[in-house]
Amino acid sequence: MRLRECNTETDRMDYRWRKALGALVALSLGCASSKHEQQQQPAPQPAPQAQAATAPAETPPVPTLRLDPQVRPSGYELELTVDPNRDQFAGVVKIALELPQATRFVWLNGQELEVQSATIAGADGKTSPARAVKGSEDFIGFGFEQPVGPGKATLEVKYTGRISDKDSQGLFRQKEGGDWYAFSQFEPDDARRVLPSFDEPSFKVPFQLTLKIPMALQGYSNTPVEQETPAAGGFKKLRFARTKPLPSYLLAFGVGPLEAVDAGRAGKNQVPVRIIVPHGRAAEAAYAAKVTGPILGLLEDYFGIPYPYEKLDQLSIPIATGWGAMENAGLVTYVSELILAKPEQDTLERQRIFAEVAAHELAHQWFGDLVTMPWWNDIWLNESFASWMEVGTIDKFAPDWGAQVEQVKTRNQSMKADSLATARVIRQKIENRGDIRNAFDGITYGKGASVLTMFESYLGKERFQAGIHRYMQKHAYGNATADDFLASISEAAGRDVAPMFSTYLQQAGVPRVSMKLACEAGQKPTLQLSQRRYLPTGSKGSSEGLWQVPVCVRYGQGAGKAGEACTLLTEKQGQLVLEDAKGCPDWVMPNAQMKGYYRALLEGDGLARLMKQGGKQLSLPERVGLLGDAKALTASNDLPAADTLTLAQRMLPSDDRELVTAAMSASSVNVDYLPQGMRPNYERFLRKTYGPEARKLGLSPKKGESQDQALLRPEVLWTVAYSGRDPQLAAQSKALALKWLTDRSAVDPALVPVVLHTAALGADEALHGRMLAEAKKSQDRRERGWLLEALGAVRDPKLVAKNLQVMMGEDFDLRESYTLLSGPLEEPTTRQQAYDFFKENYDALVARFPRDYGAYLTMGASHFCDAAHREDVQAFFGERTPKLPGGKRVLAQTLETVDLCIAQKAAQGESLGRYLAKY
Ligand SMILES: [Zn+2]
């Protein structure tokens, strides 16, 4: 699954993900994490329902989290009657069971399902009625009059269920262009809302699905349609081919007036590829149709195993869901803003993000689909690997896109998440359903990918790939654990890699490696190394921790030459002798190509030496990584804030887009840290530093410019026009926004978000009214998203109040209009007003939000930076959030974020004030 990016930065530097992926800013599953829940008991289950009371005494106790592993399915036949115009569906499921012994009762997963009837047939084929028993929210049981088994048996259940209008999980429906569509999303554990099932990933078996749908509609699922027959009442039946073995979370389908765009054939088996789109939107799928096949081919080349399924459909879901894309075998789903764009609205950025996400989802067809983790503690075997494969694949697909630099940026972000005392570990124990939700976070994705990058580099690309081949071949169509993976890599590497991997998989945190260069006469130059856990100032975490860190450095040998040296740092102290060095090196780059997952601290004059020539001897990933480390070392009080700002400026000017954006990121400051009255100075600093670049690029594309210039333009404008509040650019933005409101071609689509946001900052009632009216009128999801997000940036309290009333009304789906609250919560000048409203309407908001997302609303309170509000957040949310799924972890992270802000403000404020005073 690919999530909407988590982002707790209050600056706008990492804007592209949030804005590219829609409205649920920072509300993706698992932006939060907490160690506090590790020792928690399983979440209390609701008391068994009334029906359970009537169950005979021999009913075994309701499971609390997992099913009995002894009773297994061997396959499903499922028929679903789905009419997207209705909010109910009907199902008939036949489950082939393997019973280890004679039994009179079986528990399955099932949620919100109403059973009409059930039967059980033993190996002798004799059928008898089965009695359905409601267990807790997640379980449904079936009792038999006579013992059944041991051996094969078939349980048949007729039932009905709900098609949700509000959720983005289970089976849900969405109206688009006047038509209703229904879609499924089962990962991690929502298949149970659509069929009584063994809804755990270790039960990996074939499914044969039949969809009964209105005659005029189309239906798609994991496999091709085998047979289509008319059915009574204006319906038709689509019988899909039996799938290869799949866990329940990968079963998928979509129903509606859908259209298929032919994207040719791809891979060694020349499987058909299609893009499935809502009615009338075929022209928007051109880019997806062009790149899907080539990306699939590159993945096949890496794995050495052909794409394992019969066909590949990529299905667009027109909804502001809480997730971005999902790797269902043979039927990958994407939110429509990712996969589709009208030609006149399309941007390079959207296309690149689509290609990256497609590489991630298609990598899952092997990592996750072909080989599946048996339980959610090993979800990193899916997500870390798909995220890591995404980089290598895109690097081959488009070498000039700078995928390796993007990986360094991902590393910087995940290290920030990993520096929280409440950070999860990659292989976190799963004690309850909330833990499963929490597992889809920046640690599983970003840290996991960064750790794999490090070990691939340390062990060697070929050996690592050979290990992956072994792992895939050995476990194809089955399940495998972390131990299985480590065994395969160890065999290929010729050494046991488990101990070093484990220090990252089983332990939270980022190692901080400090290095001191010693050059003594008659001896080889040596780096003295020491490690401990990196912690930001104000953290209540412990700096204890010991990792096996592959440390690789590069060093200057004079005359433009550089040497390289590596060691595995396994103890608290160690050393790295620069064996090949000729004399004392001019400089030492403490993390060669930024492959290592550690923050590096150069003691003494190490940083000054490194930056003597503006860092020109360093590679781009190294410079970008160095800026990320500098910002982190400022947060831990190892480097004054002023030094990081100076370092960023010394990297400029640069023709390189990645370096300019990394410098902007390093010099962006949480405005809450600024001493009283210094915000105008900070804005002048941004204008002075990046204004020349902004003016050079301007507010419209130039003929013949490079892709990098086109991509850099909006990023620089965010810094100078929006964050820096440049008056000239603000006036131009307002004029352009007014034009755009009547003529959509007046602004380059890549610039629409920044132009509308900048205009909204100073919006008066008239402009606000026009933007709001357009948002209400627009039938275009992307356009409506642009407007609603920009409206969230207004600063006038009267307009903020108006927005909040609009959000509570019926004009918009709350999943789209939530930006009207999240925007003013981020901004210090509007925060109090928005917070008061937030608290007053909290219960109503939770009730209207998708079921499993309510807890994440609390993160809106994480922007505060003072003790009084911290107390208030604790008092108000402490009573409410822990009651929601995943809520304890979310609350803990929210409070820790506020605590860290308070401490950072105290630690950095003075240095920032001194530096900015001259602006
Ligand atoms: Zn994924």
Question: Which features characterize this protein?
Answer:
single chain, 919 residues, alpha+beta, Immunoglobulin-like, Neutral Protease, domain 2, 10-stranded mixed β-sheet, binds zinc ion
Write the layout of secondary structure elements.
Blueprint: E1 2-3, H1 15-21, H2 50-53, E2 72-81, E3 88-99, E4 103-109, E5 114-121, E6 127-134, E7 139-148, E8 151-162, E9 170-176, E10 179-185, E11 207-214, E12 218-221, E13 225-231, E14 235-240, E15 253-256, E16 258-266, E17 271-278, H3 286-303, E18 312-317, E19 323-326, E20 331-335, H4 336-339, H5 348-363, E21 371-372, H6 380-397, H7 403-418, H8 433-438, H9 442-459, H10 461-475, E22 478-479, H11 482-493, H12 498-505, E23 511-518, E24 526-533, E25 549-556, E26 562-569, E27 573-577, E28 588-589, E29 599-602, H13 606-610, H14 620-635, H15 641-650, H16 657-667, H17 679-697, H18 707-723, H19 727-742, H20 752-761, H21 765-777, H22 781-791, H23 797-808, H24 814-817, H25 819-826, H26 828-840, H27 842-848, H28 867-880, H29 887-916
Parallel strand pairs: 2-11, 17-18, 18-20, 21-22, 23-29
Antiparallel strand pairs: 1-19, 2-3, 3-8, 4-7, 5-6, 5-8, 6-7, 9-10, 10-15, 11-14, 12-15, 13-14, 16-17, 19-20, 23-24, 24-27, 25-26, 25-28
Bound molecules: zinc ion.
The site of zinc ion has 7 residues, from helix 6.
Rounded radius of gyration (Å):
28 Å
Q: Given the C-alpha coordinates, what overall shape results?
A: globular
The biggest beta sheet is recorded as: 10 strands, mixed
Strand order of the largest sheet: 4-7-6-5-8-3-2-11-14-13
Name of the CATH first level of the largest domain? Mainly Beta
Please provide the count of β strands. 29
| Arithmetic mean of pLDDT | 92
Number of helices: 29
Q: What is the helix fraction of residues, given as a range?
A: 25-40%
How many structural domains are formed by the residues? 4
> What ligand species are in this complex?
zinc ion
Amino-to-carboxy terminus distance: 45 Å
CATH superfamily of the largest domain: tricorn interacting facor f3 domain
Task: Determine the structural class based on helices, strands and strand pairing.
Answer: alpha+beta
Can you name the CATH architecture of the largest domain?
Sandwich
- In terms of DSSP E residues, the strand content is 15-25%
CATH topology group of the largest domain: Immunoglobulin-like
Name the poorly predicted regions: 5-55
